[in-house]
Amino acid sequence: MDKIFGCWKVSNWFYRHKMRPIGALGRFIMRVVFSADVPYNLTIGKGTRFPHCALGSLFHPAVVIGENCVILHGVTVGGRSGRHGLPVIGNNVWIGAHAIILGNVKIGDNAIIGAGSVVLHDVEANAVVAGNPARFIKWNNAGKGEILPPPM
Ligand SMILES: CC(C)(COP(=O)(O)OP(=O)(O)OC[C@H]1O[C@@H](n2cnc3c(N)ncnc32)[C@H](O)[C@@H]1OP(=O)(O)O)[C@@H](O)C(=O)NCCC(=O)NCCS
Question: Does the C-beta of 148 come closer than 6 Å to ligand 1?
Fold first, then answer.
């Protein structure tokens, strides 16, 4: 099992079973070992992977991450200063290194977020977006002959 997903799953289990201090210990260990803030009360769907151990990544606890996503390192997913709402990430979403996703945005299923992108608006399902601010660059045709991005 993916190291970060496994650590989060254990600390989330303790949190859900009213043993929050042990869940918090798991969060602390991930911070020390991977410099990653992956809160025990975050929602992460099954099959989601962090191929580079989420190094330097940070997630707001109320963020929702779907199933079978791939999240590279240095990623930030959280609030947008002074604005209400937090990102909801769909299933099979691929998030490139150092992407930043902020505020009340929905990332559709099978979307790809390019490295270093700053996402401030909803991303349609199957869209590939990149840049700061992130803009649509193409459709993700994975499953229709084209495979994007290369498997990790
Ligand atoms: C978004 C991504 C998947 C698109 O890949 P692609 O389909 O091969 O896209 P292309 O390289 O053909 O680029 C299409 C256009 O988007 C631009 N673009 C691609 N990625 C970009 C990015 N991350 N930020 C800004 N613009 C980007 C290209 O410059 C190009 O623009 P142009 O047509 O004006 O020249 C890829 O560029 C990416 O960012 N992958 C993440 C890789 C990563 O995180 N690696 C970490 C390794 S540890």
Answer: yes
Beta carbons within 8 Å of 14's beta carbon, 6+ residues apart? 20, 22, 23, 26, 40
113 CA from centroid of ligand 1 (Å): 9
Q: 130 CA distance to ligand 1 centroid (A)? A: 7
Task: Note the pTM of the prediction, 2 decimals.
Answer: 0.94
Of the candidates 111, 18, 114, 8, the one whose C-alpha atom is nearest the C-alpha of residue 53 is 8
Tens digits of residue pLDDT in 49-106 = 999 999 999 999 999 999 999 999 999 999 998 899 999 999 999 999 999 999 999 9
